[in-house]
Fold:
Amino acid sequence: MELANRTELLGMDLKSLESYMQSLGEPRYRANQIFAWIYRKAVGSFYEMSDIPKELRLRLDAAAQVSIPRVLKQRVSADGTRKFLFEMNDKKRIEAVVIPQSRDKHTRYSLCISTQVGCPLGCLFCATGQSGFQRNLQTYEMVGQVLGSRREMTRKLKTDDQDLITNVVYMGMGEPMLNYDAVISSIRALNDHKGINIGQRHITISTAGEVQGIRRLAEEGLQVTLAISLHACNDELRDRLIPLNRKYPLQAVVEAVDHYTTRTNRRVTFEYIMLDDVNTSPEDARAMIALIKPLLANVNLIPYNEVSGLEYKKPSSARIRRFYNLLADAGLNVTLREEHGGDIEAACGQLSTARER
Ligand code: SAH
Ligand code: SF4
Structure:
């Protein structure tokens, strides 16, 4: 049972855990042991921490908790993508998606995590945006999605390989830049080489174009990948699809990206969902070329994943190809994203716990 006044240990770095153990009158090395149980073994129950004296386990159980979330439900797609529904301590539910990177025996996995319960930005094409906003997730709840998913995967695959998740993308439910501090501290926790050990270059953070967050990220000294959800190259259309564009129009986003690439020397990825009859005409391609060509950036085209109840459609393969070719022929660095988990509503923008209740 979780009690509100217990200290949450998940998300703490080794130093904080050392101070905590000292506050209990315990030697510092206990922190190393507990740190390894939490992050290397994904163990959240003090009773299972077998190298800790029983008396201390009891004391810890009364004073602290490690809230690795429980998987309430999971769905597996034909392509191996798995969607987990997690329940937080306050019973709020969020989703994370595990995507296999290949199909061989040594497959590594990429994990897409949520940053908020719902999302306040209300993009018109997005299932999460249409389901409203409830609250920000805390650092431990983001780190917990990684440990909870990893624990489930190692059990399923009957392996003790604790490094099977190699990439984490902040592209699940919510807008990471509106939960900036918790997102950054979760990145630092995931990156700790003594703990979960996910390389900064294997972490991607995606934003709808929250300019203040982009500018702050430029100063963090992190080597993560920044992805910007573009989806339209004129303000009139972008205002409609992504209401945040009315606050931060394209010019402001482009300036922030330019500043970011200058400060970090890191390439940015522009994501562009293709919506039939909305944003995939030759004129849209020309506008994108003019906008992106001067920037240090890649473009990732994502065929829209249809959401029941929303009017948007995915274009035909011929249209997708034509749009791709126009961009590639103009010399843009462009890739076409394969769809993962479309059959279980685990694809980008299909995450909404509304229909899981
Ligand atoms: N809020 C952030 C990150 C979460 S959304 C953002 O908007 O970037 C992750 C990505 O999924 C974004 O690029 C978003 O535009 C895209 N997306 C949303 N709904 C989608 C859908 N139905 N099909 C494909 N991509 C979608
Ligand atoms: Fe929020 Fe991103 Fe969905 Fe827009 S696309 S509503 S910012 S989660």
